[in-house]
Amino acid sequence: MIQNRLTIAVLTVKLALLAIVLAVFYVNFYITNEARDRLYSSPSRVPAKEVGLVLGTSRFLSSGEPNPYFENRLDAAAELYHNGRIHTIIASGDHRHASYNEPAAMRDALVVRQVPEEAIVMDYGGLSTLDSIARAKRVFGLDDITVISQKFHNERALYIASQYEIRAIGYNAEGVPRLWGIRTVLREYFARVKAILDLHVLDTAPYLDT
User: Fold this and answer.
1) pTM of the model
2) N or C: which end of the chain has fewer CB within 10 A?
3) Per-residue pLDDT tens digits of the chain, which is 210 residues long
4) Sign of torsion, CA 141 143 146 152?
5) Whether 82 contacts 171, CB under 8 Å
6) Which helix (H) or strand (E) holds 136?
7) Chain-centroid distance, C-alpha 160
8) Cα separation of 6 and 25, whole Å?
9) Distance (Å, rounded) from C-alpha 15 to C-alpha 141?
């Protein structure tokens, strides 16, 4: 009797784990598919829009080396600007502490790339992708933007944008070698599940303080 109960319990746990794994993969597929026709990798093909939204990340890795995700995003933003595909760049990132300022770092990197400072708007409240997208709509009053990040990140950002009724496209910055960025790729699977929960289950309120 006890053995039967243990067998049922183990089977139940296995089925629950299988269901979770399948749900994670389904969410990943769904969000990728939803963004499929709104992603661009060549500036000549990108529809011109007034504003590009660069999603923040740290400038340096924990080792102190430059973060290639950061460098590639800013390269992509400058590329769009110099090709006339965007005219204003919102640098949206985390500035919760005086010692950590993603938007300022993005601005400095853009200026080095010959983007005039007057074309750059800093958004200090982009603590997460959800916050950056929601603030584009509710703080900056935008409903038509080009999101600039790596492809995997753009896919999630575009899904969030659609929930805020923003007409968004994504411009894909160059990624990093897959093996080098495997942790980021794995983390993205769960970030997508969190996005679904935030938007449709938890009704997570974005950070809208200015």
Assistant:
1) 0.90
2) N
3) 666 666 776 667 777 787 777 878 888 999 999 999 999 999 999 999 999 999 999 999 888 899 999 999 999 999 999 999 999 999 999 988 878 999 999 999 999 999 999 999 999 999 999 999 999 999 999 999 999 999 999 999 999 999 999 999 999 999 887 666 678 888 899 999 999 999 999 999 999 986
4) positive
5) no
6) helix 129-138
7) 9
8) 29
9) 45
- Is 144 strand, coil or helix? strand
Q: Locate tokens 């769904």: which residue?
A: 30
C-alpha 42/C-alpha 98 separation (Å) is 36
Q: Residue with structure tokens 């080098």?
A: 180
For 74, the token pair is 């800013």
Give the type of residue at 112.
V
Total length of the chain: 210
Q: Which helix or strand (DSSP H or E) is residue 26 part of? A: helix 2-35
As a whole number of Å, the CA-based R_g of the chain is: 19
